Amino acid sequence: MSVKSWGEVALHTLLVFLLFSAIFPLTFSAANQPRNPKKRNPLASDSSSAVFQVEGNVYPLGHYTVSLNIGYPPKLYDFDIDSGSDLTWVQCDAPCKGCTKPPDQLYKPNNNLVQCDEELCAGIHVSKERQCSAPSDQCNYEVEYADQGSSLGVLVRDHITLRYTNGSVVRPRIAFGCGYDQKYSGPNSAPSTAGVLGLGRGSASFLSQLHALGLIRNFVGHCLSVQGGGFLFFGDDLIPSSGVVWIPMLASSLEKHYSIGPAKLLFDGKDTSVKDLELIFDSGSSYTYLNSKAYQAVVDRVTNDLKRQKLERATDDPSLPICWKGTKPFKSLSDVKSYFKPLAFSFQKAKNSQLQLPPESYLIVTKHGNACLGILDGTEVGLENLNIIGDISLQDKIVIYDNEKEKIGWVSTNCDWLKEL
Ligand SMILES: *[C@@H]1O[C@H](CO)[C@@H](O)[C@H](O)[C@H]1NC(C)=O
Q1: What are the percentages of helix, strand and coil residues in the chain, rounded to 5?
Q2: Active-site residues: which are they?
Q3: Could you tell me if 212 and 191 are in contact, meaning their C-beta atoms sit under 8 angstroms apart?
Q4: Which residues contact 361 (CB under 8 A, 6 or more apart)?
Q5: Distance, CA 137 to ligand 1 centroid (Å)?
Q6: Across 25-39, 134-148, 355-369, which has the greatest mean pLDDT?
């Protein structure tokens, strides 16, 4: 009890702090410019955002997470934040295969199953046929991830606790998956989190449901710190009023991914021959994956450029496929970044709009003291021609998914605000 109330007080303090420190650094530079009055619709005037503290890192953990209170009385579960999928699910006491949490930390359904005839159930079965033999059947789901992991379960509906930036708390009932059969495969070990928070724009996502209930505007954003941690928000309060690069989402994407393009690849500000890339923003992926051609171009340019440096390939570091060692072990990215040039994606239909990747956005420093390339060959792992911008390249940017105007925006910033306390 005392722990819980302390937690709530602490969170509230964090939010107030966030509001003050967050709005200032970013609007500051706009002070001398003519203000671009934000057009507000009537709903927006009293709209508010919900903010969550993010934990985790690209290396060694490989994921960023938030903790959410679910149920009443509320219980805390940690979720991998995933802008590459819609459905949110939590490990389920059903009983469970493939659960990694102890039984007392699993979610227990309590006669709160979503029925098969509900619209929401249809929303998670867009491509596959829905198997409802009777309308009152439970609503089964299965999600498969690009890394071959999967979760199978049933949809339930329960209260989630949302705290607005203005301090108000609401506990709407939201549908999510209770996952009783998880599989993990490939090189990745079983995730340590209780579940996945799907930030996608499909109708079953938390955001779409909160928006449909009129609780939040249809925006989600994240700021993942290079130092680890950061913050996540639903709603539009924390969107900087200037400096954001906005690119329209591609409508073609069948799965309604957050994707933009076409883009060409730049190395050290100069064109490479690689163009027409479609980029999917996916916070559920630790690293960035490019198709073979683009990947090879990155490897060639970086390798070629390193010839004038005292860096050698470190073939004995198993952390990632390509690593380099210095004359002595590297301690952090700041030891490394002077050796490497920036990469960038330049959007062919939006002149002068770039997604810049400084060395920190494509390298890690491993526990062996080497610098490794955090861009991987997606074609080789079965992603075919998809290009996935993962956590490593989303760091130290506020990234905003605007589902009202269907565009994605970003601005470089320091994502450490919430950790100051
Ligand atoms: C905070 O924002 C929410 C969402 O817009 C609103 O419903 C609530 O009344 C606000 N609370 C206060 C104290 O202003």
Answers
A1: 20, 35, 50
A2: 82, 282
A3: no
A4: 343, 392, 393, 394, 395, 396
A5: 37
A6: 355-369
Q: Which pLDDT does position 130 carry in this prediction?
A: 57
Q: Is 168 in the pocket of ligand 1 (CB under 6 A)?
A: yes
Q: With CA atoms as reference, report the closest residue to 279 among 265, 255, 296, 262.
A: 262
What distance in angstroms lies between residue 344's CA and the mean position of ligand 1's atoms? 40
> Token digits for 92?
């389920």
Q: Is 47 in the pocket of ligand 1 (CB under 6 A)?
A: yes
- Per-residue pLDDT tens digits for 320-371: 999 999 999 999 999 999 999 999 999 999 989 999 999 999 999 999 999 9
> 41-59, pLDDT tens digit by residue?
334 445 589 999 999 999 9
Structure confidence at residue 129 as a pLDDT band (50, 70, 90):
low
Tell me the average pLDDT across 204-221. Answer: 96
Domain residue spans in the chain?
Answer: 2-26+42-234, 245-410
Residue 73: cis peptide before it, omega within 30 degrees of 0: yes
Buried b vs exposed e over 215-235: b needs ≥16 C-beta within 10 Å? bbbbbbbbbbbbebbbbbbbb
Helix (H) or strand (E) holding 391: helix 391-394
Asked which of 173-187, 221-235, 295-309 is least confident by mean pLDDT, the reply is 173-187
Strands 277-281 vs 371-373: parallel, antiparallel or unpaired: unpaired
Asked whether the domain spanning 245-410 has the same topology as the one spanning 2-26+42-234, the reply is: yes
Q: Decide: 46 in ligand 1 pocket, CB within 6 A.
A: yes
Q: What separation in Å is there between the alpha carbon of 351 and the centre of ligand 1?
A: 40
What is the CATH architecture assignment of 2-26+42-234? Beta Barrel (2.40)
Q: Cite the DSSP H helix spans in 259-322.
A: 292-306
pLDDT confidence of residue 66? 97
Residues whose CB is less than 8 angstroms from the CB of residue 225 and which lie 6 or more positions away in sequence, other chains included: 395, 396, 414, 415, 416, 419
Residue 9 to residue 368: CA distance in whole angstroms: 40
Whole-number pLDDT of residue 412: 96
Which CATH number is associated with domain 245-410? 2.40.70.10
